[in-house]
Write a structure and sequence with these properties.
heterodimer; A: 469 residues; two-stranded antiparallel ribbon; globular; B: 20 helices; ND/Mrp_TM (chain A)
């Protein structure tokens, strides 16, 4: 029964996607109705996930699936983040598509399918399952990125992401094949047993893990596979960008952590490699972000920096008693802030995303003080200023890094956050310390603003009551 | 006093400030709210001071677990070290609300939030909790300077924000290091200063962590050479923000060194004490000399404030009871005198629309009460006997001579510089030529006189009869210094042993 409950959110989301796909053939079906339906599915799934999030580790239907899927509190929280991200994305979409009329019913169906792939990815404890769920997720996301076919930037983003993403998928299969060749199994448990009795440094295993890591690093936009992320985030519709930045990252980081935690020996092999990746990801991301004048591009670059912090968390996971709580918490904190700011951008962006640069948001605080305050809260959370969730997340990451003896990395993380203050503060300064030039007219749909304020409250709630830890 | 008085004192202003931001309240309504809240805090502060027993331990302590898995707790408490800082922070706020009108409600809300956060930082005995309040403190300052500051406010805002955030993020890394070290030495998580003082830290990382802490606090104090943000920020900020910055926030930097750095890093502190006290003295001299040359009297006061922070910091670095008591006493003395001076500077600016010393003169003939008050505050600031400044500075110089005669000599010399620029400024502003511009200068109104009188009386009272204050500080200061000296003695012994062992092993190899 527990197994079924743990799987229930996945089933609900999947059936939601199918239902919406079938409904989309009806001519009377409106996109707004579709958004309500998908809100319902996300809401129910979120609620169920919430009930089961803190179960101890268990194999799902061990007999039927032969331990391909494992649920524990880590995957539970990751699922919560994904479903929450889905829920709030639908809310922002509702408002966004009143100003940018490119939506059809299939959009929401694809969003559900993408979430379905992500949840499956968090549960996966087997390479083929991971690959299949990775592709379910990616295919849906490709289409979502290029949904606005008439916009050139959107099409360009789609092409870039599709080409590079396909390569990453190929790398993953290659890696899986090599690992299978070494360990004789694609199941994480078997691979771990193999490493325990042999060495993790056999050529096949090194090569296989290398390719798999490349695929993951590409998906989370870590250095040196980060170049695509700026254009793709910029080209995609704002709510979709928010969804990609949070849910996708949460899903991939979960499976990444699960993969690294297979066996301590495997993680040890890659620590030095990941150390430099994390370092360059943080500082590279900061350098890119400082130079941006477009907010979405700045957020994309700051997303790279946050991937760097999460990589610190991955380096510092203790494989003996792996709970993933630090990573899960950081993902949640990051997701709340990022989703919030993208929700705000979806209703403040205006028709055809006309307001995009820092200068366009000058004087927002004079016209819309509450929205400006909410955006400031999200930015401060991303910058890691207490008492927000982002501060707590950073605190845990640094604590875990120092506990595992990675003091240098902790210090570099701190220096990187000092640098990141520059571009977060810049937006706050633009909003507050300038006179308004724009009237910031928006469509009167309450969903995205409501979503923004709920998330602003969440930033403090998660920060002050860090239950996950 | 009731049990949770500290929590109420912290969160009442914060909540009132947030409520002001959220609800549509008019200008005067928000000013009135601010005034009422600050008067309530004022009452609590007085009550707390009178009820304080002064036995050296933590009083009004609250200790509730917050994040169990990392041992972070919501723990507050007041002892002789924090008492006077708390007093300064709660006593001076009503004055701001009473004197300054005409700002919008956002400004008053920010002032309230700043007060709450500062009280939180003063009361916190858990270092993570302290850090949280420490950071929140900066946000209202950021908005107050950026939104309501002078012409070059943007540059000043950026400067102070980047400086302080850089400092405090370094401190974050350092405090996590301290917590993790506690975990590895005692097998349990705790960030409470009562536990952390048992830590035994040594090695390169400990020195780095110590330096990170010191940089964060040195920026806030500000200690030479981290003071460069100060003249811009103090000058560009609205006067009441400058008041908050100089009278209270800077003191929290000194207080934090005493509270959190000394108990944890005794050895490193002893090792660096001479260097740090030199930084204090050099800062005093440098800022004093810089003050002499200023043409803008607000900027002059900014440098003077920085110069006096140097002597307060020096008192902490001397590591003996006289200097520490003197520093703690001087915290209140300086808060009242410099705070009042900044308020008066703001009044002159408001009435004359200029900050240029050369444009003014002869104010004393037009406004005798104002001139008298100004003179008292100024004389307290330069440390004339009979005013509060004398007691503190005397004790600090005494301790400094005991610590190192040369440092004591330099500090004494630096005080003379203070007399130079202050008296010269007073002469140029208040006497000298009778200026046509100052013809219409109005004296203090009755309301203003009544508002300032208690502070002026406090300055005189503290100078003539400092016993009630010193009594409450001394036991805690003694405890602090006692724990410190025993630690250094044992550690010096240990240190002499360690190299010998290393030498032996080296020899065998």
């Amino acid at each position: 029964m527990n197994d079924f409950l743990s799987l229930l959110p996945l089933i609900i989301i999947c059936s939601g996607g199918i239902v919406l796909m079938l409904l989309s053939v009806l001519e009377t079906m409106k996109t707004e109705t579709a958004s309500y339906i998908s809100l319902g599915f996300f809401g129910i799934a979120f609620f169920i996930q919430f009930l089961i999030a803190c179960y101890p580790e268990s194999d799902l239907f061990a007999g039927t699936f032969s331990s391909m899927l494992v649920a524990n509190s880590f995957t539970g929280v990751a699922g919560l983040i994904i479903l929450g991200a889905g829920f709030f994305t639908v809310m922002s979409c509702h408002t966004y598509f009143q100003q940018n009329k490119v939506c059809t019913v299939e959009f929401y169906s694809l969003l559900l399918f993408a979430s379905c792939g992500m949840i499956l990815l968090t549960l996966a404890r087997e390479l083929i399952t991971a690959f299949i769920s990775l592709e379910i997720m990616s295919l849906a996301i490709y289409i979502l990125v290029g949904y606005d076919r008439k916009r050139v930037t959107s099409t360009e983003a789609l092409l870039k992401y599709l080409m590079l993403g396909a390569f990453a998928g190929a790398f993953f299969t290659m890696g899986a094949a090599l690992v299978y060749g070494a360990a004789g199994s694609t199941r994480f448990v078997e691979i771990s047993n193999y490493i325990s009795s042999n060495s993790a440094a056999t050529p096949l295993l090194i090569g296989g893990a290398f390719f798999i890591l490349i695929a993951f690093l590409f998906k989370v936009a870590a250095f040196p596979f980060h170049a695509w992320v700026i254009d793709v985030y910029d080209g995609a519709a704002t709510p979709v960008t928010g969804f990609m930045a949070t849910a996708l990252k949460a899903a991939v980081f979960t499976v990444f952590a699960n993969f690294l935690a297979i066996n301590g020996a495997l993680q040890k092999e890659w620590i030095t490699f990941l150390f430099y990746i994390a370092l360059f990801t943080m500082f590279g991301g900061n350098l890119i972000a400082i130079g941006q004048s477009n907010i979405k591009r700045m957020l994309a670059a700051s997303g790279i920096v946050h991937s760097g912090y999460l990589l610190i968390g991955l380096i510092a996971i203790s494989t003996k008693s792996f709970t993933g709580s630090v990573i899960a918490y950081y993902l949640a904190a990051y997701a709340v802030g990022t989703l919030g700011i993208f929700a705000a951008l979806s209703y403040l962006g205006g028709k055809n995303e006309s307001r995009v640069s820092f200068d366009d948001f000058k004087g927002l605080a004079k016209v819309r003080p509450y929205s400006a305050a909410a955006i400031s809260v999200f930015l401060l959370s991303m910058a890691g200023i207490p008492p927000t969730a982002g501060f707590m997340g950073k605190f845990y990451i640094i604590t875990s890094a120092i506990t595992e003896g990675q003091i240098a990395l902790a210090v570099f993380g701190v220096i990187s956050s000092i640098l990141s203050m520059w571009y977060y503060l810049r937006l706050i300064i633009c909003m507050y310390f300038n006179e308004a030039e724009d009237s910031f007219e928006i469509e009167k749909s309450p969903f995205a603003p409501a979503c923004t304020f709920i998330l602003a409250v969440c930033v403090f709630a998660i920060g002050l009551y860090p239950i996950v830890i | 006093m009731f049990e949770n008085v500290l929590s109420v004192m912290i969160f009442l202003p914060i909540l009132a400030g947030l409520a002001l931001l959220l609800f549509p309240v008019g200008k005067s309504g928000s000013r009135l709210t601010g005034f009422i809240v600050s008067v309530i805090i004022f009452m609590f502060g007085i009550e707390l001071f009178l009820d304080f027993t002064g036995n050296g331990g933590m009083e009004y302590a609250v200790n509730r677990p917050w994040i169990d898995s990392l041992g972070i707790s919501y723990s507050l408490g007041i002892d002789g070290i924090s008492l006077l800082v708390l007093l300064a922070c709660s006593l001076l706020f009503p004055l701001i609300f009473a004197v300054y009108s005409g700002k919008t409600k956002g400004y008053y809300a920010n002032l309230l939030i700043a007060q709450g956060a500062m009280l939180g930082a003063i009361c916190a005995t858990d270092i993570v909790l302290f850090y949280i309040f420490w950071e929140i403190m900066l946000l209202p300052i950021f908005f107050m300077i950026g939104l309501w500051g002078g012409e070059k406010r943007l540059a000043a805002t950026l400067k102070i924000t980047i400086y302080t955030i850089a400092g405090s993020l370094l401190m974050l890394a350092a405090l996590v290091y301290v917590g993790v070290s506690y975990h590895s030495q005692f097998g349990a998580w705790s960030f409470n200063i009562a536990d952390l003082r048992n830590l035994d830290l040594s090695g390169g990382f400990a020195v780095t962590a110590f330096i990170m802490f010191m940089i964060a606090f040195a920026i806030k104090i500000p200690l030479f050479p981290f003071h460069t943000w100060l003249p811009d920020a103090y000058t560009e900020a609205p006067t009441s923000t400058t008041f908050v910055l100089s009278a209270i926030m800077a003191k929290i930097g000194v207080y934090a060194v005493i509270r959190f750095v000394i108990p944890v890093f005794e050895i490193e502190f002893a090792r660096f004490a001479l260097l740090l006290s030199l930084a204090g003295v050099v800062g005093m001299m440098y800022c004093g000399l810089a003050a002499i040359t200023q043409k803008d009297f607000k900027r002059l006061l900014a440098f003077s404030s920085a110069s006096h922070m140097g002597i307060i910091a020096l008192g902490v670095f001397c590591m003996n009871i006289q200097a520490l008591t003197g520093s703690l006493f001087q915290i209140v003395a300086h808060a009242t005198s410099t705070g009042i001076l900044f308020v008066f500077a703001g009044l002159i600016e408001e009435r004359m629309q200029t900050r240029n010393i050369a444009d003014l003169g002869g104010i004393a003939y037009r406004a005798p009460i104002f001139a008298t008050f100004f003179a008292i505050a100024m004389l307290a600031s330069v440390g004339l006997p009979g005013t509060s400044g004398f007691i503190g500075e005397f004790l600090i110089i005494l301790g400094a001579v005991k610590f190192n005669a040369f440092i004591g000599f330099l500090a004494g010399t630096a005080l003379i510089i203070g007399v130079c620029y202050m008296l010269w400024m007073f002469q140029r502003l208040f006497f000298e030529k009778s200026n046509t511009k100052t013809e219409g200068f109005k004296d203090l109104s009755l309301l203003e006189t009544v508002t300032f009188l208690p502070v002026i009386l406090l300055i005189l009272f503290m100078g003539i009869y400092p016993q009630p204050f010193l009594q409450k500080i001394e036991p805690a200061a003694e405890l602090h210094v006692a724990g410190f000296t025993t630690m250094t003695v044992t550690e010096t012994v240990a240190e002499t042993v360690v190299p010998a062992q290393e030498h032996d092993t080296h020899h065998k190899n």
